[in-house]
Amino acid sequence: MDVLTAILTRRSERSLVEPAPSAGEFAELLAVAATAPDHGQLRPWRWILVRDADRDALGACFAAGAEAGRAAEAAAKAHRAPLLATLVFQPRAGHRVPEWEQLAATSLMNHAMMLLLHSRGYGSIWRTGAFADSVPVRDLLGLHPQERTLGWLYIGSPLHERALPPRTPQDLTGKVTSLARRPEPSMAGGHLGSPSVQR
Ligand SMILES: Cc1cc2nc3c(=O)[nH]c(=O)nc-3n(C[C@H](O)[C@H](O)[C@H](O)COP(=O)(O)O)c2cc1C
């Protein structure tokens, strides 16, 4: 599958069933995804794979933070895919590469992973949710104090073959400018609501 096709046909999949990639296949894809741009090659992340009965323990953590009467619903969220790959961010404090760049590198790696999974016929969706970095979740995963979860890549095989909803073409004209062609003040401010010209 070429890159253009992979990007245009990927969809976040909400109904995921077995099979999911094995640990070996996950590692194989990750070796490729980890070639995404990463300033300083810090690899400021790690993955914790949660599958099978381990999802019960994670679901219990979700339930622990749920509103009264919604524990079962929260627990069931951990069973929405056969594999929940926990994305853990490990920022290097005080490094010359600022934290936002480390987070950007982590997100790029994750997106590459989603495209690679898609190219192999797997589906995925990045979910965070209210309990992603809650104390019970952190304890279960054994996170170090400087680490934090960025949620989970829910991974499996799409339950249904579905017709791809079209990606609606958007007018992105105002998103690209040049020094020679400055934006209209109304476009430059955009959602920021600033009347001043932005460069
Ligand atoms: C960092 C991040 C966190 C997200 N968290 C959730 C979430 O907790 N629950 C959810 O339903 N969608 C979440 N989303 C949105 C989906 O992953 C997905 O991008 C969205 O449904 C659009 O689908 P598409 O990827 O097919 O365009 C999140 C997206 C990102 C980038």
TrEMBL record:
Keywords: Flavoprotein, FMN, NAD, NADP, Oxidoreductase. Residues 180-199 are annotated as: Disordered. Its EC number is 1.-.-.-. One of its GO terms (molecular function) is oxidoreductase activity. The keyword Membrane does not apply. Residues 7-156 form the Nitroreductase domain. Binds 1 FMN per subunit. FMN binds at residues 10-12, 39, 126-128. The keyword Ribosomal protein does not apply. It comes from the Bacteria. Its cofactor is FMN. Belongs to the nitroreductase family. This is Putative NAD(P)H nitroreductase.
